[in-house]
Design brief:
Number of strands: 10
Structural class: alpha/beta
CATH architecture of the largest domain: 3-Layer(aba) Sandwich
Helix content: 25-40%
Strand order of the largest sheet: 5-9-8-6-10
Distance between the termini: 65 Å
CATH superfamily of the largest domain: Nucleoside phosphorylase domain
CATH class of the largest domain: Alpha Beta
CATH topology of the largest domain: Rossmann fold
């Protein structure tokens, strides 16, 4: 073999070593990171108080989402605004788990009430989550069922639910909450007809636009989750002139409650 041939072989070997190292590194991206709690909110008011309360060590922007990594109430956390809708929410949850070594996920924010027992400002702790706009029923599946998987509702983690209840009991005197189903869809529910359709098909306590997708992403990655929502509206179009104010207050109340929950961990 002449010198040129030898150099070519060496070059190929070096490239192969670097390629293998890179691939191995990609597969072990979270190995040297601490276990973290992921906190997801769709809108600024849903995470602003949490970001203000945490010590941010660094931020990283992925898919136009800013992931804030740091410490909150002595816990390693990542706080992120995912934006509205199921695609954003599912992508965000998957990124938290696979990029930042998140081992528990809390979804916080506002929601519309589906239950007359829930008034504006009250809380919902998820027992499970469904996607009310997922419908393959014309070919024999139940509304909300993910075809060929048998999956319909995604169960929230019992330990995280208990932590949420404990935090709520210490949040303020007389705070009202219910545990139950969260219904998710890429729609803002604002008519009595839409609301009744969800109730007829799924039941549920509240409707929103992210929790079910986060729940599915967590299920697929075997990561415990809970959805915590404060009621901002009645999901029937009433009081829409005051919605922005109610939504901001509900989101802030929910964020403050999550802060108390993190303190219990």
């Amino acid at each position: 073999m002449d010198n040129k041939g030898l150099l070519a072989v060496i070059a190929v070997a070096v490239v192969a070593v670097f390629a293998c190292s890179y691939i191995a590194g990609q597969g072990q991206e979270t190995d040297d990171q601490p276990e973290r709690i992921g906190i997801i909110g769709a809108m600024v008011p849903e995470i602003e108080k949490l970001k203000d309360a945490m010590t941010i060590e660094y931020t990283e922007t992925i898919a136009s989402m800013e992931f804030c990594v740091g410490v909150l109430e002595d816990q390693e956390v990542v706080v992120v605004q995912c934006g509205m809708g199921k695609v954003n929410a599912g992508l965000c949850a998957h990124t938290l788990i696979n990029k930042f070594n998140v081992t528990r996920v809390i979804n916080t924010g506002a929601a519309g009430s589906l239950d007359n027992r829930l008034d504006i400002g009250d809380f919902v702790i998820s027992t499970d989550a469904v996607q009310h706009d997922f419908d393959v029923s014309p070919i024999g599946f139940v509304k909300g069922e993910i075809p060929y998987t048998g999956l319909y509702a995604f169960q929230a983690d019992p330990k995280l639910r208990e932590l949420a209840k404990k935090a709520l009991s210490e949040y303020e005197v007389g705070v009202h909450y219910l545990e139950g189903r969260v219904c998710t869809g890429d729609q803002f529910i604002a008519t009595p007809e839409q609301k009744q359709t969800i109730l007829d098909n799924f039941g549920g306590l509240c409707c929103e636009m992210e929790g079910g997708a986060i729940a599915q992403a967590c299920y697929l990655n075997d990561i415990p989750f809970v959805i915590i929502r404060a009621v901002s509206d009645k999901a029937d179009g009433s009081d829409m002139e005051d919605y922005s104010e109610f939504e901001k207050k509900a989101a802030e109340r929910c964020a403050f409650m999550v802060l108390r929950m993190i303190d219990q961990m």
